[in-house]
Design goal:
The complex is a heterotrimer of chains A (about 425), B (about 350) and C (about 290). Chain A has about 425 residues and is an alpha/beta fold. Chain A is built from 13 helices and 16 strands. In chain C, a hairpin with a 2-residue loop joins strand 1 and strand 2.
């Protein structure tokens, strides 16, 4: 029995060695002569509808810049990773971008949880990072630029409308992770500033699709309106169940997220009409800049693209802001680009004028209050001009305190 | 003589492992080391199930429970304490403790086969559901929020015992992980070659007969289960050190499925096969995921079906068979080994 | 009082849903000793067999009650021939092969259809119960589940094929000796189980939506229900559904939906420890 065992042991050992040797990319292509932009987005798995449109907006922005000769005389190239709706993969791919690909800038992340995974990695690696997604606000980190909306822009304009028209008792339904949790806290704070009250809150992990007991609990609590922060396709089942229970005409819904994955064009109007939202960008914005943007988007991706929405357009605007800063700095280097970003930089995007706020590294832009109609489109009710990001009492001041690295929460103010 | 040959082989494996562990960081780029570290971690996790399922025949659908507990124990420990020695020990001890309780419940209740699979699956789903829904900031252990779905980012890497300012870099984490993998591999080989290991295999083959011979099958299974949990916990600790991140997906049904796939691919009842299976499948799914040719689930699913239907023993034993057969046809002398393999003796 | 009524209805609904998603798996496991780990994906397929035809303009009821069960039933027959038949009697290998099938189906659905939720409103409208409103579809699910369970009982007890199938399951060798085509019986039984799974997925699609990964939310619960039910197909499944559905839904009302799920799993663990062969484990295999 000795021989086979010994031979097998040897073979075992060499198998393990051979397996280690076939690990891919032992050497990789170096400097291609192009400027490399890194991205990590959820292009598969439950968050795919978000990631797909965000990736398209990145591709469109980079194509447009390349068509105009690129930046600093060089063409741009996107290094893209699919995080498969798994935060674990964000950690892996962020390390890969920082150690291996050595890109000039990263525009990445969808869920706030994924942002908090990669943000420290890029900060440590001195790699400039853009988070182009509407979120719960408060991130204060000189290495990070947040080009999406914050509660001070979204909730602060959505809640007064709902309170004025429907009443002061609010029921919050939110995704069970930092985005939902902190949004709920902001809702509480902003509501109490407006003399209203959150009477109950419920949080749902992203795979929950059964809302029967929740609907009964809402019926028992009798709120004047609901504010939801649903994320992902499982949560979307709520709208159908709410309608089936005959609640749609009884209690109105305001949403922080409805439409971000194109729900407004996919859901039947009898489920969606009447839901109120407030975004920086909507496909329905009636301006020459947006008409031209929609035309270019259609030309590249066809008529069957669904709905673009605020979440995706933030990527387009994020790239354009960074490109503007590179042009202004005349260099790619992180320090110079950050300085250029902080010099009152502004672009004119599909949503209108977008100005970088050097104090918080967030953006000042227009906000639109809208309601889903019976024609599978949003109807814009009101426009708020050049709204500033959340920053009560100027707790975040990156000009004065450039070393700050934290996320401010309403309870800590 | 057999023992001598075996010991020599293991020593060779150990020496080669040490040489690679210390020399490779000087030879390749950091990022290669980071990638290799991931494979090492998965290989170690595969070893734990190779022992529990492959040798002891315990069909555990939730081996990732111990991996996850190890990872979370280390994370919460190191973030509270600031020094990594005790947290590493916790990352191994807590999974063992949990396995001891769960194993006592299972084996002394005579739960077996598919029922044991269902219970371990239930336990991992409970862990996933609970951890995944603790994202509120009120859920803390010590000063550290559990994080729920967010997971816990920015976990400190291990340090030199006693000196929390001397934290390991990517290179040292690689060296440490490889040394530990080699040590676990050699340790398991020694364990399986011992009297204890032989009884474990005998129980797998025929539990009743082993009990009639006077061995308490329940106790043997429990000990193997606890050792498996220790290895999985250690893998969990290394996993956190590799990515500085842990989230509830380590408890998910997909993650548990992956471990079983590794063992299937490598073959039941082999250790090196499990390592090869883990490395190959992880490499394949990363490669498919990065290159976007085809959805990784499609490929994994097909591999899974084909393996069960066509190569039920797994790839490693099949390759070894092939190799042996060729050797035999070349020499036509090794009759004893032929008889043995016909009788299914390893 | 209204609240008690509403809770009672929701508990009945939870029990019915569990029985509905489990019955196809129970027939296949209870009668053939085969665990179909791709069961969740059979439900998913049933869901898409409603959603996609309806989007193409087919009548909802035609899609739900005819297209979905037939599609998934035929699919089941093919799978039985290709994957299950070579593995009869090897329970672990079957679990692993069907697990592979599950991954494959998830991958194909993700690649072809993606994660877009159409979000239809279930038909029928709603009814007022005191200060609460309940969708009438909830009652439809409860009623249809009762009909399906009664139908399966009648089919197995009172039709020629049903009796042959029961006999074959109890003693295949004897059945074969008496001239029964055993492999045909297995194929039809697996097809029947698959068709019921397709129907279940179809009935739940309007309320839960359909996603490529939706099977995962079903499989664990169905699997646990069937195993806890034990060897007696219908009685076991109904008993386990009643126990788990009641516990999880009541706990959900008292806390959250996640704690409700955890309660279900914990009860299952304790149950299997006390009754290692399930609630009806002592009864003979192949019974009802």
């Amino acid at each position: 029995m000795s021989h086979p065992i010994a031979r097998r042991a040897f073979l075992n050992a060499s198998l393990a060695g051979a397996a280690a040797a076939v690990v891919p990319r032992l050497s990789w292509a170096q400097a291609s002569g192009k400027i490399r932009i890194g991205t990590i987005l959820d292009l598969s798995g439950p968050l795919q509808p978000f990631g797909t449109q965000k990736k398209r907006c990145l591709d469109l922005a980079i194509d447009e810049l390349n068509a105009k000769g690129g930046l600093l005389g060089q063409q741009l190239e996107l290094i893209s990773y699919d995080s498969q709706s798994n935060n674990q993969l964000f950690a892996q791919f962020a390390t890969q971008l920082a150690l291996k690909d050595k890109v000039s800038v990263v525009h990445a992340g969808l869920q706030s949880s994924s942002r908090e995974v990669i943000r420290p990695i890029f900060r440590r690696a001195n790699m400039l990072y853009f988070y182009n997604t509407p979120y719960e606000g408060g991130v204060c980190d000189r290495n990070t630029f947040n080009t999406g909306t914050t509660p001070g822009q979204l909730l602060a304009n959505l809640l007064p409308h709902m309170i004025k028209n429907h009443g002061k008792n609010i029921y919050v339904l939110a995704a069970d992770y930092n985005f939902g949790q902190l949004s709920e806290k902001w809702t509480r704070k902003l509501a109490s500033d407006l003399g209203a009250k959150v009477i109950a809150s419920e949080f749902f992990p992203l795979d929950v699709a059964q809302f029967g007991p929740t609907i009964n609990k809402i019926q028992a609590a009798k709120p004047d309106f609901i504010v939801n922060t649903f994320v992902g396709p499982a949560h979307a089942s709520f709208y159908g169940q709410w309608t089936a229970a005959g609640m749609k005409k009884q209690i109105p819904i305001a949403s922080q997220t409805f439409g971000e994955a194109g729900e407004v064009v996919r859901m039947p109007p009898e489920v969606s009409d009447g839901i109120v939202v407030c975004y920086n960008y909507l496909d329905e914005i009636d301006s020459p800049a947006n008409a031209a943007f929609l035309q270019r988007f259609q030309a590249k991706f066809g008529n069957d693209y669904g709905y673009i929405g605020d979440l995706a357009v933030a990527e387009y605007q994020g790239i354009m802001l960074w490109a503007e800063a590179v042009k202004k700095a005349g260099k790619l280097n992180r320090e110079d680009v950050i300085k250029a970003m902080g010099s009152g930089l502004a672009i004119s995007g599909p949503s209108g004028r977008v100005v970088v706020d050097p104090i918080t590294h967030h953006c000042v832009f227009d906000m639109y209050l809208a309601v889903a109609g019976t024609d599978k489109r949003f109807k814009i009710l009101q426009k708020f001009d050049q709204v500033k990001p959340t920053n009560p009492n100027n707790v975040c001041n990156l000009v004065k305190n450039p070393n700050t690295n934290q996320q401010f929460e309403p309870t800590k103010l | 003589m057999s023992r001598g040959r075996d010991a020599a082989t293991l020593m060779a494996v150990g020496l080669i492992g040490l040489a690679v562990a210390f020399s490779l960081p000087h030879l390749v780029e950091v990022f290669v080391l980071v990638e290799l570290t991931a494979y090492i971690v998965f290989a170690m996790l595969a070893l734990s199930l190779a022992l529990v399922w492959g040798y002891a025949g315990i069909l555990c659908f939730g081996q990732s429970i111990f991996f996850g507990i190890g990872g979370y124990a280390y994370t919460l420990g190191v973030m509270n304490i600031g020094e990594s020695t005790l947290p590493v020990a916790l990352g191994i001890a807590l999974p063992m403790l949990f396995a001891a309780v769960l194993g006592y419940f299972l084996f002394y209740g005579r739960v077996s086969d598919i029922y044991l699979g269902v219970i371990t699956l239930c336990v991992s789903l409970i862990a996933y559901n609970l951890i995944n829904s603790l994202s509120g900031t009120e859920y803390k252990i010590g000063s550290v929020p559990i994080g729920g779905h967010n997971g816990i980012p920015g976990v400190p890497v291990v340090n030199m015992p006693g000196d929390s300012s001397r934290t390991f870099g990517f290179e040292e984490v690689f060296t440490l992980s490889l040394i530990l993998l080699v040590a676990v591999y050699i340790g398991l080989r020694a364990l399986l070659a011992s009297q204890f290991g032989k009884v474990v295999v005998a129980i797998r083959e025929n539990e009743l007969r082993a009990e009639l011979l006077g061995y308490d099958a329940r106790a043997y299974k429990l000990v193997v289960f606890v050792i498996g949990a220790a290895i999985a916990g250690l893998a969990g600790v290394l996993f956190v050190n590799w990515g500085s991140f842990i989230g509830p997906t380590v408890f998910s049904i997909f993650f548990s499925a992956q471990i079983i796939i590794w063992i299937m691919v490598g073959g039941l009842g082999t250790l090196a096969g499990a390592i090869a299976g883990a490395v190959f499948i992880q490499w394949l799914s990363t490669w498919l995921g990065t290159n976007k040719i085809i959805d990784p689930n499609i490929v994994l699913g097909v591999i899974f079906i084909v393996l069960v239907l066509l190569v039920p023993k797994g790839l490693q034993p099949m390759l070894v068979e092939r190799f042996k057969r060729r050797r035999r046809s070349e020499t036509r002398s090794d009759t004893r080994s032929e008889t043995n393999s016909r009788l299914g003796v390893p | 009082m209204d609240f008690a009524t509403v809770v009672f209805i929701q508990v009945m609904y939870a029990v019915a849903t569990l029985a509905l998603i489990s019955v196809g798996l129970a027939i296949i496991f209870g009668m053939m000793r085969v665990i179909n780990f791709a069961h969740g994906e059979f439900l998913m397929l049933g869901g898409y067999a409603v959603v996609l035809p309806v989007q193409a303009g087919v009548n909802l009821w035609v899609a739900m009650l005819i297209i979905a069960p037939i599609t998934v039933g035929l699919f089941g027959v093919i799978i039985e021939r290709l994957i299950i038949r070579p593995l009869y009697g090897r329970i672990v290998e079957t679990v692993l092969a069907t697990w592979g099938l599950s991954l494959l189906m998830i991958g194909l659905a993700s690649a072809w259809i993606g994660f877009y939720q159409a979000g239809a409103a279930p038909p029928f409208g709603s009814v007022q119960i005191g200060s609460y409103r309940e969708g009438l579809y909830t009652f439809f699910v409860i009623g249809v589940t009762a009909l399906i369970l009664a139908g399966v009982y009648g089919f197995l007890r009172h039709t020629r094929f049903g009796l042959i199938a029961l006999g074959t399951m109890q003693n295949p060798a004897m059945a074969a000796a008496l001239g029964v085509n055993v492999s045909r019986v297995y194929a039809v039984t697996f097809g029947l189980g698959a068709a019921l799974s397709g129907l279940a997925g179809a009935i739940l699609a309007p309320i839960s939506g359909v996603l490529p990964v939706i099977g995962i939310t079903y499989i664990a619960k169905a699997f646990i229900t069937v195993i806890s039910g034990g060897a007696t197909v219908l009685a076991g499944t109904i008993a386990a559904s009643a126990l788990f559905g009641t516990v999880s839904q009541l706990v959900t009302y008292l806390s959250t939906v996640i704690i409700g799920e955890v309660a279900l799993l914990a009860v299952a663990i304790v149950l299997l420890r006390l009754l290692p062969e399930g609630i009806t484990g002592r009864f003979s295999r192949g019974g009802l």
